[in-house]
């Protein structure tokens, strides 16, 4: 079966080090059962798919690339996994990420360094770097990722594939190991636009187990693929081609805008004036929520516990000190500080207010436009090791992807040319719950 071949290929050729765990036996058993049943009613039946290792999978180790969950075998499936199983998709294995999805290069994994599919000396991006490299290197046609500040779109851009983050509330987060609950969203990494829409058709929808999922009806996300984009009104914010964006990347995006014009769309320059506050706003909100979410890792309930502990406090302190990596500790400290009495008003509350200003910027542009475009990342993939010692430079990588998370908007990265042999991503941001327009324009551009 395709499953056998896929697993054999991963065993033999995971040259990018994308996978942490393979699901050999379960995947083969599922493929066999499907074969015997002889029913392939769902478009995903038999499709091998890779799963980012912060999405829980029953009976299959789920680590979030952290030592603290190194031996965690979940007793249940995430809602998205239940839905994929029911549609006959086959989870072939779990992919590497930055620990707890904190990072932009997958170098923060406690277990291995994943490589860019185009150049093994470069990072695959992050935090869904394993999922992106697995798809881009041809090991699987599709993978799930999670996107809190760009973690699907940035690695998709760095690896020249299609990455899609749905509207906040479109896909259940039940079973996604929480990083920042008001920003996290599960989405897809695929080679084609249509494959993404087919997977979203299966995983989208309200879930009683996640109160933030919307009651919104789920359309057929493939419905507008193939339709003309003539007359479409597209906005290109000045801020997205400004300072810090590599001029050669900006050139590719201008070329992409011209291509959209040649397909009958109009592309106008607009302004999103609060863009410059997005990164600091994000790091306060995301770290605050992370510091709260990560309290559950205490050495008692799950995973790793330090050895030779003397008392309860020792269990907590030593298990967390030894179990978490440096970036995770940095976020916990940052978040705990922002939320502490005396600093809450100056940091967390202020960030929440600026978040509203950023959201309002988008709402204003969407009064007159159907879609916003720009580069997904300021540069193409950087060299492994280049930014690990400089967290602030690493944080600036997400300057263009973070605003969509703060506003809860759907957004995608579509391959749009190359700079010095490395892929460039065209970023598309849509209106709330209007994933269909992104798919329509992305497919026209593809
Ligand atoms: N790179 C960003 C961060 O480190 C985004 C991560 C993500 O989207 N999960 O927080």
UniProtKB/TrEMBL annotation:
Domain of life: Bacteria
Domain Amidase: 3-438
Keyword Ligase appears in the UniProt entry: yes
Gene3D superfamilies: Amidase signature (AS) domain
Pfam entry (one): Amidase
Family: Belongs to the amidase family. GatA subfamily.
Function: Allows the formation of correctly charged Gln-tRNA(Gln) through the transamidation of misacylated Glu-tRNA(Gln) in organisms which lack glutaminyl-tRNA synthetase. The reaction takes place in the presence of glutamine and ATP through an activated gamma-phospho-Glu-tRNA(Gln).
Full protein name: Glutamyl-tRNA(Gln) amidotransferase subunit A
Provenance organism: Lacticaseibacillus yichunensis
The organism's taxonomic lineage, starting at the top: Bacteria, Bacillati, Bacillota, Bacilli, Lactobacillales
Gene name for this UniProt entry: gatA
